[in-house]
């Protein structure tokens, strides 16, 4: 059964005096496919700006914003209404040759997946392989989905989620040593672990819907820098959802037969309607929600605020305000 969700994403940059701006690239818009449909969308920018949309090398939708005047504040306000069909990914059949690990992709698949197979941090591979070894049998094979489920669950249970305002993503070795990180750190850790096993994986950015935050009295809004998903272990009632009320990150693993399957190691999710993807990329740096330039002295920058809310609607016409139909 599908659900209707309204996503509101507001980013505000503050300056101590008016500054000039270069073009800014925004990755806010949910990525539509057979499981997600974008029903309505708006993007309001202050100060007055030129706007146009492009597709990047991964076919993600990117809004290019060019402010036309100087200002002491840049506000980017996006709102989307989507219909989410919540594919149950564990029910998708794998190709017979991919049911057990290890397996090899076919020649054509390997060629098409070439960008998503090599590790991004080859120097961390020895430490990653040592960590992954505990999830592999001493001899023989293991069900492919079992090893991925074990990795997904281990990050949730053995690592501490720690929100971080600083930009960037920790190296996998840093996360392994610290035993803590953000959703981006956990997604990168599992992505690199999966690649060390010879499987294709890609980084995914987007939003997370948490029904426990979605009440009339308390909107799911957070000042942060940045329903029914399939859970391998704890239920939603037992363990709080991490990363809601902000931008979120997870990964896709390519499994022959099932295709790109989403794994969220921060919350031990495998798809469902909780995850609202915006973009997928080869590495985290390519999935920044906002990138751009401004011109002035370093001390002119006064700070930034990000507000994200995701709420469930009774139907497609129940949005908080009118938006532009697509």
Automatic annotation (TrEMBL):
It comes from Uliginosibacterium silvisoli. Residues 175-267 form the Transglutaminase-like domain. InterPro entries: Bac_transglu_N, Papain-like_cys_pep_sf, Transglutaminase-like. This is Transglutaminase family protein. It comes from the Bacteria.
């Amino acid at each position: 059964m599908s659900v209707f969700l309204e996503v509101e994403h507001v980013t505000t940059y503050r300056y101590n005096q008016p500054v000039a701006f270069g073009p800014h690239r925004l990755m806010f818009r949910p990525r539509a496919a057979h499981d997600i449909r974008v029903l309505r969308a708006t993007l309001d920018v202050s100060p007055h700006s030129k706007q146009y949309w492009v597709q990047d090398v991964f076919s993600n939708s990117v809004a290019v914003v060019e402010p036309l005047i100087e200002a002491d504040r840049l506000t980017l306000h996006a709102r989307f209404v989507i219909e989410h069909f919540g594919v149950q990914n564990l029910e998708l059949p794998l190709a017979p040759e991919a049911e057990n690990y290890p397996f090899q992709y076919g020649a054509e698949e390997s060629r098409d997946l070439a960008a998503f197979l090599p590790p991004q941090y080859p120097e961390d591979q020895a430490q990653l392989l040592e960590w992954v070894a505990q999830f592999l049998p001493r001899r023989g094979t293991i069900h492919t989905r079992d090893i991925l489920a074990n990795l997904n669950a281990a990050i949730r249970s053995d690592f501490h989620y720690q929100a971080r305002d600083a930009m960037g993503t920790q190296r996998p070795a840093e996360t392994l040593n610290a035993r803590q990180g953000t959703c981006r750190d956990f997604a990168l850790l599992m992505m690199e672990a999966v690649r060390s096993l010879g499987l294709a994986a890609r980084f995914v950015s987007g939003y997370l819907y948490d029904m426990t935050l979605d009440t009339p009295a308390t909107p799911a809004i957070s000042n942060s820098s940045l329903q029914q998903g399939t859970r391998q272990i704890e239920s939603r009632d037992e363990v709080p959802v991490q990363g809601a009320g902000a931008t979120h990150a997870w990964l896709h693993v390519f499994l022959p037969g099932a295709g790109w399957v989403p794994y969220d190691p921060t919350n031990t999710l495998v798809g469902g309607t909780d995850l609202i993807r915006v973009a997928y990329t080869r590495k985290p740096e390519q999935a920044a929600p906002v990138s751009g330039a401004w011109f002035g002295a370093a001390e002119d920058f006064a700070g930034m605020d990000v507000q994200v809310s995701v709420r469930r609607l009774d139907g497609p016409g129940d949005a908080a305000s009118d938006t532009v139909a697509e």
